[in-house]
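Structure ticket #2291
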Amino acid sequence: MIKMWSKVYLVISNIDEYLKNIDSLNKFISTSTKEGLGLGKQYEFGHSFFLKISDFTNQQKATITAMERLFDAHLNPTLKEYLRTVYSDNEIEDKLTEAKKKFVGKLKENGQ
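Resolution: structure written out below.
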């Protein structure tokens, strides 16, 4: 399914890196609590969230700033609601920070 996005929906120059970050975030969401949030595959974000990257950039590139803004505006509020079913209020902000790093982190490491 992710491969279809790069051919049909998104026209951004760094699509491969963007898709890796999407995959990293979704794996973090679904993986057991030792390595991730342990919410399960049913809580992974779908394509409609990630297509909104175009709302945050005027370039044909998923920039760090655009991805941070996408996370803050769309992914964070939804994920926060998911986390309330499993984690205490004290843990939620740390988990959200970790999730944001999973989503944006690889681009930051590569200096994009």
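Closing remark: Confidence is low (pLDDT under 50) at residues 1-10.
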